[in-house]
Amino acid sequence: MIFDSAHEILEKIKQGEVSSLEVLESFLAQVEKVNPKINAIVALDIERAKEKAKEADNKISLKSKLGPLHGLPMTIKDAFEVEGIVSTGGNPAWKDNIPKRNAEAVQRLVDAGAIIFGKTNVPFLSSDLQSFNKIYGTTNNPWDLERTPGGSSGGSAAALAAGMTPLELGSDIGGSIRVPAHFCGLYGHKPSYNIISEVGHMPPPPGSILTGNGLSVAGPLARSPEDLEIALDVLVAAQEQDSQAWKVKLPKARTKKIKELKIAVWPDEPYAEADDEITSLIKDTAEDLRHAGAKVETVDLPISFEEIDKIYSLLLNPLMLAGSPKETFETLAKLNESLDPNDVSELAKVARGSVLKHADWVLVNAIRQNMRQKWREFFNKFDVILCPTCITPAFKHNHNPVHERKLTINGKDDEYLRATLWAGPAVSAGLPSTNVPIGMSSNNLPISMQITGPYLEDKTCLEVAKVVRNLRGGFKIPPNLQ
Questions:
Q1: What pTM did the predictor assign?
Q2: What are the backbone angles phi and psi of residue 285, rounded to the nearest 5°?
């Protein structure tokens, strides 16, 4: 049962085949068994969760009206405040923070009947592709304990892949939902911008109000696309402060018929070279879709990847640097003075972002809005576009200073932060994007791709994810956990 999809567990609870308390105890037993070597779940709230599970079971016996997540035990990324459970954001300065209220997205899950029994690990301030911090240590990938499950929703992904939770809430500004899902062989959905509240997300500091920074989003991770859809239906809503006047209702998928799908494929890109095995599996998936009747076309983009990345990095880096020490800005400003205009290294991008003036940001944002219009025109012709989630499968732990880390791509060294390149197109344009497993690497690591769609048409991405799942197979249990 612990590896069943959330929607399967929910149906069993509803039909009385299993109690909510039994489900919770099954997950807690798996936590006790495998978490010591994976270190994905970093805080537990066992006694309160058991009481809530008993209450949920009582409601079923009384035939009360049930929410869509009624009785489902689940965990939450430690970037979200959860009432009564220590919530740190991976920051030692917040290690004693026990919130008095839930983040708004968490509250929607609770109102739908979910039972929050624990928190999952993150990097410091959710700002790394690996999940480790000075409070809780390092989270390992269930497929290979020497490798990272990704970040920043790495604890979320590792817990799901290891059967310790059936559903998770993550967040994404640089692939932080999609990359961990890719590294662990899961489904993860980065929603359209600002359709799920981030109020109660850390950073900013506990108790602050994040109502939108132009890039980051909250969204679900799961073991099936159906679970993503159930979670999305619960989570999508106006922020509390806007709810008196604003309502959000996402359109249905453009089609559920594979022969009506118009699919663009973007399997490789010289500017963002991906591992050959990733590119090959995306091409194989495109062929499967074509043979199944979809219209599939390898395309030229409406905007160059280099231009997308330039705008994305100028929007992203000032946000990521916010709150850094004065000395950091001084060092980066000095570096910026000596930069070659043609230098597109990751450190150069960070340096340029550190000195960006608001007047310059206005121009950058105007270019971003123009890009969004080009994507809108693009999606008049295509329903979705398929592309890599990341340039590499899960890599080995490396906790050296960020700009000293390297990745090996097709036998060549590459900069560590280039692993976020494929996150940029969807984030900078606010587009929905779903990570879907499509196969395994030669050394038995999961490989995924992302399905990116038009703004606010998240359900089209999820419908294509179901099609791909049926063609390529879905979540697989890591061998050492079977």
A1: 0.97
A2: -65, -40
Q: How many other β-carbons are positioned within 10 Å of the β-carbon of residue 401? A: 7
CB burial readout 227-241, b (16+ within 10 A) else e: bbbbbbebbbbbbee
Which domains does the chain carry?
Answer: 6-252 (3.90.1300.10)
- Kindly give the confidence (pLDDT) of every residue in the chain, 482 residues in length, as a single tens digit, with 9 standing for 90 and above: 999 999 999 999 999 999 999 999 999 999 999 999 999 999 999 999 999 999 999 999 887 789 999 999 999 999 999 999 999 999 999 999 999 999 999 999 999 999 999 999 999 999 999 999 999 999 999 999 999 999 999 999 999 999 999 999 999 999 999 999 999 999 999 999 999 999 999 999 998 888 999 999 999 999 999 999 999 999 999 999 999 999 999 999 999 999 999 999 999 999 999 999 999 999 999 999 999 999 999 998 889 999 999 999 999 999 998 888 888 888 998 888 888 988 989 999 999 999 999 999 999 999 999 999 999 999 999 999 999 999 999 999 999 999 999 999 999 999 999 999 999 999 999 999 999 999 999 999 999 999 999 999 999 999 999 999 999 999 999 998 87
Residue 451, strand partner residues: 386, 434
